Amino acid sequence: MSYAYDDQNVFARILRGEIPCTKVLETEHSLAFRDIAPQAPEHVLVIPKGAYVTFDHFANEASDAEIADYTRAIGTVCEMLGIRPGMGGGGYRLISNSGREGVQDVPHLHVHVLAGKPLGRMLPGGKDTP
Ligand code: AMP
């Protein structure tokens, strides 16, 4: 079985320059930009430039160079936003929704970097939810 990538998804169009984004960082293999509907004071999306649908797709098929670049891009975004715990920031949450049960809307791998306020428990209705 192979991964099917829809090259008409909105992030593919951003990568092709067909629609704009508010860019935070661009590296050889990655792009970070502000989410159009932020759910926290800081809400940045980090995507690989390659055609990967989900995190597992990327982890299984991306090159070592792409994986290193992407991982470091996420770290650099955390540094740029000033959100690193123990480094003057208050911390953050990374989320990568994948597939139907992960409730993924855009079928191009993205990690949400959320920060800037206490973010509450991980999942509504999950462990320790008041
Ligand atoms: P997900 O449900 O994890 O697939 O999240 C997709 C995210 O993409 C949502 O948080 C949207 O607000 C965001 N989004 C959709 N279109 C755009 C866009 N043109 N620019 C920036 N963010 C977008």
Q: Could you estimate the helical fraction of the residues in percent?
A: 10-25%
Order of helices and strands, N to C? HEEEHHEE
Distance between the termini: 42 Å
CATH topology of the domain at 12-92: HIT family, subunit A
Would you identify the CATH architecture of the domain at 12-92? 2-Layer Sandwich
Radius of gyration: 15 Å
Shape: globular
Give the full name of the CATH homologous superfamily of the domain at 12-92. HIT-like
> Beta-sheet strand percentage?
15-25%
Which CATH class of the domain at 12-92? Alpha Beta
- The average pLDDT value, as a whole number, equals 95
**Unreliable segments of 5+ consecutive residues:** none
Protein structure class: alpha+beta
User: How would you write the strand order of the largest sheet?
Assistant: 1-2-3-5-4
Can you count the helices?
3
The distinct ligands, each listed once, are: adenosine monophosphate
Task: Please supply descriptive tags for the structure shown above.
single chain; alpha+beta; HIT family, subunit A; five-stranded antiparallel sheet; globular; binds adenosine monophosphate
SSE blueprint and pairings:
Elements: H1 10-15, E1 23-26, E2 30-34, E3 42-48, H2 55-61, H3 64-81, E4 92-95, E5 111-115
Antiparallel strand pairs: 1-2, 2-3, 3-5, 4-5
This protein binds adenosine monophosphate (AMP).
Adenosine monophosphate (AMP) is lined by residues 10, 19, 21, 35-37, 45, 97, 103-106.
